[in-house]
Amino acid sequence: MAVQISPSILSADFARLADEAKAVEGADWLHVDVMDNHFVPNLTLGVPVVESLSRATDTPLDCHLMIEDPDRWAPQYVEAGASSVTFHVEAAAAPVRLAREIRAKGARASMALKPGTPIEPYEDLLPELDMLLIMTVEPGFGGQAFLDIMLPKIRRTRELISKHGLELWLQVDGGVAESTIERCAEAGADVFVAGSAVYGKEDPAAAVAALRAKAEGATASAGWACGH
Questions:
Q1: Does residue 226 have a pLDDT over 90?
Q2: Which end of the chain has the lower number of beta carbons within 10 A, N or C?
Q3: Where is substrate annotated to bind (predicted)?
Q4: Order of strands, edge to edge, in the sheet holding 30-35?
Q5: Catalytic residue among 33, 36, 62, 190
Q6: Residue 124 is a catalytic residue
């Protein structure tokens, strides 16, 4: 499976979002962190900004909803222009129904797990998804240190994906940088969200390329990737 890089605009200059999106046009996705100050203790942006951003860039938007009641709100982000919408299983009342609704509206359906949420209870849900997000920090703020203790969870998730023969992307978000991305790729991740590791650099496009090269190198020698 191809490595994909999704720079997070949480670390970008919010006053210059259109320019910041253009600065990473070599990326596969633009990761948009939506926070409501209820599910997580931070407030960022919502549907109107996603609508504007979708008009300002050709890079597809990967919206990560760290919000309460995603069953109500997630479909609106598809309508606003998101190509992928991630909801948290901890917040969703009916995750299968929600994933199907997101797909029916034309976007990729993704489900996120906080660090303390195990993957095993959700094994039967995996075929309903296009991507699974393993949080490698507690959601809510950018710039946090990567949690190494999530690596076994990434490995177990990759094993479940392989067990069921699914074409399911495995995304990691939180503390992903040049110093950590290889470990994530080796463990089984193939989609990488990076905030400060991209927008904290002088040349964000070069940072994306450097992250991609490291992840591709680690994936090429990873046991899980053999045969893909």
A1: no
A2: C
A3: 8, 64, 140-143, 173-175, 195-196
A4: 4-7, 191-194, 169-173, 131-135, 108-113, 84-88, 61-66, 30-35
A5: 33
A6: no
Q: Answer yes or no: is 223 a known binding residue.
A: no
**pLDDT tens digit string along 36-75?**
999 999 999 999 999 999 999 999 999 999 999 999 999 9
**113, 133 contact by CB (below 8 A):** yes
Which residue, among 195, 151, 199, has the nearest Cα to 173 in the 3D structure? 195
Instruction: Find out whether 175 is annotated in a ligand binding site.
Output: yes
The pLDDT tens digits of the residues spanning 207-217 come to 999 999 999 99
Which positions ≥6 away from 59 have C-beta within 8 Å?
21, 24, 25, 27, 28, 29, 30
pLDDT value, residue 223: 87
| Centroid of chain to Cα 85 | 9
Mean pLDDT of 174-189: 97
CB atoms within 10 A of CB 37: 13
Q: Determine whether the annotation assigns residue 88 to a binding site.
A: no
